[in-house]
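[agent] plan:
  1. take the single chain provided in the ticket
  2. run structure prediction with default settings
  3. attach structure tokens to the ticket
  4. add a short note for the reviewer (M.T.)
[agent] executing step 1
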Amino acid sequence: MNLLNVDIKQAGYEKDQAIIYNIQFDVGAGELIGLIGPNGAGKSTTIKAILGLLENIKGEVAFQQGAKYSYIPERPLFYDELTLWEHLDFIASVEGLHDKKYQDQARELLAQYKLAEHAHEFPGKYSKGMQQKAMLILSMISNPDVYIIDEPFIGLDPNAMKLFLESIQRERERGAGILMSTHVLDTAEKICDRFLIIHKGEFRAAGTLDEIRTQCHLPNGSLYDCFHLIAEGHEDE
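[agent] step 2 finished; step 3 output follows
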């Protein structure tokens, strides 16, 4: 069952100035898809197109009817006047979450990510690592069907990274689909089901690691090897 279908012919920030082309993929229940590419390749533009933030787009982005999604940006965003708990209350109100169940889940997540003692503080004053963990908690509290995650490992220490990976594994087991943009290729290789390697606005390879290897003619190559072959092979285009 596909939770998200993407068929973008072209998209960009200005009319008739496309940045991405022919972006086609889907995200199924329980799948973790890695969106890989160098800076400026079009990853952020692809994500913005999926989120409906671009006016200049030709194509279609369709979530399964009734599916909810959460977006975790690379740079955490918070309301300056709200504490972390007030952020959670706000989400619960918007999503119509059951009060006791939501509060129990919130306390569990805050304890897991070691933010319980800081729940009534302003996230804008947190360290970068604490802010990233706060964003993860806010994204999980509504139990979305699809996660769209942009560079989740930035600012996370090894313990927090391990906890994050365990958390998204539980979400996958629950049936959530995940699209994750990342530069941490060794971790992506271990946890992702499929990969989308984008360069200069277009997919250069897509599929499982074995399929990527075949497309790159590197039968024993790592994701890192394939990525750099693609990037270097097209750097003069």
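[agent] step 4 note for reviewer: Helices lie at 43-50, 84-95, 99-112, 128-140, 158-174, 185-191, 209-216, 223-233.
[agent] ticket updated
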